[in-house]
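Supplementary Note 3. Input sequence used for the single-chain structure prediction.
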Amino acid sequence: MSNSLIILEKLVLLFCFIFVGFFCYRKGWLSKQGSSEISNIIVNIFNPLLMISTALSGSGSVPSSMLIQNLVLMAVFYGLMILLGPVVARLLRVKGHEKKLVTIMLVFANTAFMGIPLVESLYGAEETFYITFYALGFNLLFYTYAIQVFKRMAGDTTPFSFRSLINPGIVCVVIAMVIVLFNIQLPKMAVSCITYVSDACIPLTMIITGCALAQIDLRKVFTDVRLYVFSFFQLLLIPAAAAFIMHRSGGMGFDSTLVGIFILLYGMPNGSMPVIACESYDVDADLCSRGYALTTLLSLFTIPFVTMFI
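The predicted structure, written as discrete structure tokens, is reproduced below.
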């Protein structure tokens, strides 16, 4: 129960930032254009540096066996979500493009922006760098699998280009992995600079989340039964099933901390990237937007419950 209280305290703090963003947008202090511009800064500067900062926190202190275990768990995490997507879509009886969107929503959850502060609360700052692996998987899948899905939905048949992987997110995650694998030590001033800048990432992201929620008709969010079913699967059933399998099998030989992070990340709400991509490729973002809103709001109650499985 203590873990649940620790997580609840951190979630309340994060939701305070969400409320600030919601309030500022409704008051007209932050416009849709301003929110979009801040999002670009987060995606291209703050988030990439956050990945490097988390890697620096664990550089030199992690044995290679832990790195391999975490890499395997990351691959299992995303592999299972991709496989479960069509199953959940079928249960929800969605049609057309929404079938693919359900999978996208499941796979690309808010593992970094919410995962990092929550993991830090439970396990300490040094353990947050394990999320760097999940960030790498997220970015690789998003700029290959997800972008191709959105392009096909928009009628674009342009073949995949590896140039699409050359972006600040991918580059900084790769740098972060190199730092961890080769135990690279940066000068103290460089570490301080990266840390100070990256510390702004999570508060700003939560504020932008609040702005996004302020633009959605919450009445439609709370009256869609399908979204409640989807939220039940994503926020409770899947992490509970993962915890049951792991605990019944004795953790399958994996480190208990890595297993705990693995289970916790399964309980994260939808991420904002699918919504942004829908708008970028002129795909109907209604389902993604409403799913993003409902799962984010419900996560305040479900994540403390999920920690009881760890």
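The chain has a mean pLDDT of 87. DSSP finds 14 helices and no strands in the chain.
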